[in-house]
Amino acid sequence: GGRITMSGQIQNYRSAVSAIVNVLGDEDSAANHLSQCIFTIGMGGNDYLNNYFMPQFYSTGSQYTPEDYADNLIESYTQHLT
Prior knowledge:
Elements: H1 6-24, H2 27-35, H3 45-53, H4 60-63, H5 66-81
Helix pairs in contact: 1-2
């Protein structure tokens, strides 16, 4: 399957929540429903694979140490999730 960026995943979530509000009729009902759901996210796998195992397509492997790259990803994810 294809990859979806973090921004794309967040937009998909917003769209799904909006659809749930429409189906259930109001935000409180949707919030109650969603509070009973389990959510999982997987992130960073493709970032590391692309960065370090596909250097012909991604130059960041030579720009950052693995530790610096992890810090960069954490900062990016923090901005998306706050």
